[in-house]
Amino acid sequence: MKVLVTGGTSLLARRTAEALLGRGDQVVLLQRHASPIDTTQVLGDVRDADAVAGAMNGCDAVVHCAAKVGVMGAWSEYHGVNVDGVAHVLHAARRADVARVVHVSTPSVAHAGRSLVGAGADAAVTGRSGAFYAESKAMGERLALHAAGDELPLVVLRPHLVWGPGDTQLVGRIVERARAGRLALVGHGNALIDTTYIDNAASAMVAALDAVSPGAPCVGTAYVIANGEPRPVAELILGILHAAGVHAQPRHVPLHVALGAGSVVERLWALGRRTDEPPLTRFLAEQLGTAHWFDPRPARDDLGWSPQVGIDQGLALLAEWFVAHPA
Description:
Blueprint: E1 2-6, H1 11-22, E2 26-31, E3 40-43, H2 49-56, E4 61-64, H3 75-95, E5 100-104, E6 116-119, H4 132-147, E7 154-159, E8 162-163, H5 170-179, E9 184-186, E10 192-193, E11 196-197, H6 198-211, E12 222-225, E13 231-232, H7 233-244, E14 251-253, H8 255-271, H9 282-289, E15 292-294, H10 297-303, H11 311-324
Parallel strand pairs: 1-2, 1-4, 2-3, 4-5, 5-7, 6-15, 7-12, 8-11, 9-14
Antiparallel strand pairs: 10-13
């Protein structure tokens, strides 16, 4: 099978491409900058319909990982990548008679700030002003699901808090802030959250690619992907710091204080037109201060997928990586 993977320089897309290559598939990567992976690469942007169509040519399947993430940037940037980019991928897939599509979304498309306990993949919610990432990803997911059918078998995966060796997002930011003495826990740090070790997230992409076909139960359906091991957020953060060899004691900030501070910080960053990531946002405070873990059964039953690397094993592998890559 010849598979196009978009956003090839991201951790998830890179591991997915490696997993596909490892089992003998052909892989084409579409991204703005060259990847170290030894495979066919097309340097381009998903906002460029011609670049997407060119990369899709001759492919049997696509895993669409490319996204504008974070909280900084103009709405036009988020919309261009996370909405228009999805439209370009869907259009190119139809024209190229692609038989399998995996669209990568995020659980934040359905997160309204309340605790999620054993939740399923609720419908994406739009209309959230200021939450550019979640709003644009929700719009993009809706486009993808609307296009799904026998003529374009498509499944949506929402990997939850992906982490592992080489992660510059969750792991990198936790370690960086701890080293700078700026790491804080919202509330008592006892909110249960689930996460996804990177190898599990990549294997879910491959399983979804194999499962999605005309008439399959997963076509037109969204699935949350996670390890299925809810842990208190403080336990997870301290585990990551231990793996990194960082000894720090985060301070605790009450949830209502963190929510208010996050809103203020967001306004200050917008007024100052800053491009760096703020230390706290309202969305981040919600993520750290409320429980959110999900029912693993739908992905197991419909995709034939289950995580193979547990949280503790993942932390051990992360520690090995930090030893091999000292700061």
